[in-house]
Design goal:
Alpha-Beta Plaits; rod-shaped
């Protein structure tokens, strides 16, 4: 065997011995190229799978939010006519004040004056309150109670203070009334809940 190897080396030099090494190097380079591409594609496939799962979770969550939104909207439709609905609570306060003012003036109460505004929020609904001073006669009070019950927006009287004072203009006496009115405010519910993440997390092939 050694004599054969020496004979091959004597006639052909080192090229026959180098040939297997060259083949091995070529196979190693080819394997590295193929394996590297495979690993790149595998990592890319893993990233896509993670993004796809994230998109599915987002879509599932969006579906739940949309169902809750639809249920809330159905309840809100029946309540909306009785609630002051506006983007800002200050707008609802102004709307409530004008409704109470119009109601009092329609019942012929005099010297209507508003003060001491406040609000408390719980669960997305705000309770807005305001005090009002006005003058009238005893016969107007039952009419005020009936008018509040039929008012287009839900209104209640939290406190009522009545004093008898002189009426210098007409002679005799009249009532000085201080009442605390309350109503409800809610922001407008949007028509639908957009899937905000769909644009940024779109899976591309």
């Amino acid at each position: 065997m050694k004599r054969d190897l020496k004979r091959v080396y004597r006639h052909h030099g080192i090229k026959y011995f180098a040939f297997p090494a060259v083949v091995l190097l070529m196979l190693a380079a080819l394997a590295d190229q193929r394996l590297g591409g495979y690993m790149d594609h595998r990592e890319e496939a893993s990233d896509l799978a993670i993004r796809l799962e994230s998109n599915r979770n987002i879509l599932d969550l969006h579906g739940k939010v949309q169902r809750n939104h639809d249920e809330l909207s159905a309840s809100f439709v029946s309540l909306e006519p009785k609630i002051f609905v506006a983007p800002d609570i200050a707008q609802s306060v102004n709307a409530m004040q004008e409704q109470v003012r119009a109601l009092l003036q329609s019942l012929y109460f005099d010297n209507v004056e508003f003060f001491d505004f406040s609000d408390t929020t719980k669960g997305g609904v705000s309770r807005i309150s305001m005090s009002a001073r006005f003058n009238g006669v005893p016969q107007q009070l039952p009419r005020l109670e009936a008018a509040l019950a039929q008012a287009p927006k839900l209104l209640s009287v939290d406190a009522l203070e009545i004093k008898v004072i002189d009426d210098p203009q007409r002679g005799g006496q009249q009532l000085a009334v201080m009442a605390r009115f309350a109503g409800l405010h809610m922001k407008q519910i949007p028509d639908s809940i957009p899937a905000n993440a769909s644009k940024n997390t779109e899976v591309k092939p």
